[in-house]
Amino acid sequence: MNSTMEQIKDFLIVGGPVVWILLGFSMIALTIFIVKLWQLALLRAESRKAINAALDAWRAHDINNALAILSDKRPVEGVVAYCMEALQSTKREASVVREEAERRAMNTLHDLRSFLRPLEIIGSLSPLLGLLGTVLGMITAFQQMEGAGAQVDPSVLSGGIWQALLTTAVGIAVAIPVIAMHAWLERKVERVAHNMNDAVTQVFTSKEGERLAAVAAREVLNAA
């Protein structure tokens, strides 16, 4: 254990500031990933059980039960509940309700996508930083070789090269899991967006939704 820690410490010292920056990137990426996992788990954003039950009640014209099943604290359910309440009130046209639902959905998806951009940036920059460290290390190694003249020690040169390549290895080691985490979280958000669009569309295209939309349209025309 002590030897492993000493080896890691030596790597950090040999790698220089680039390795420390990459280590900081990895800690930031891990923190973001844990926070997003906690957010998705808390909101149960991908759960369809309550939504499907509410849609069944909605199609059966049991609007009160449908609304009671849904929770405003969950992103998809909150948008679906708004659509049902707005259509039930028959005070707004269906097109206006849909536009407001789209606005709420976009805000929800924006919140779910928060901090995903930094993950993407870290995944893109890490290999480049590692390559930069390698280039700088190679420059230093060849400068030492030039200064040694004819008395070049191959072991010194090879030691400088592996030290330079260390930063590239660290950069790739950081980038691979970060890119995988970003892709996985992005896929989660895409599934939430799909579930939201599918559920809202079912609210509007069901017979109950069409009936309430028609009533709302008539009331608007009568008021005009």
TrEMBL record:
Transmembrane parts of this sequence: 12-38, 121-141, 161-185
GO cellular component, one term: plasma membrane
Key words of the record: Cell membrane, Membrane, Protein transport, Transmembrane, Transmembrane helix, Transport
GO BP term, pick one: protein import
Localization terms from the record: Cell membrane; Membrane
Domain of life assignment: Bacteria
Topology versus the membrane: Multi-pass membrane protein
A Pfam family it matches: MotA_ExbB
Domain MotA/TolQ/ExbB proton channel per the UniProt entry, residue ranges: 86-197
InterPro entries noted in UniProt: ExbB/TolQ_transport, MotA_ExbB_proton_chnl
Chief location: membrane
PANTHER family associated with the record: MOTA_TOLQ_EXBB PROTON CHANNEL DOMAIN-CONTAINING PROTEIN (PTHR30625:SF11), PROTEIN TOLQ (PTHR30625)
Family the UniProt entry places it in: Belongs to the exbB/tolQ family.
Protein name: Biopolymer transport protein ExbB
Organism from which the protein derives: Marinomonas aquimarina
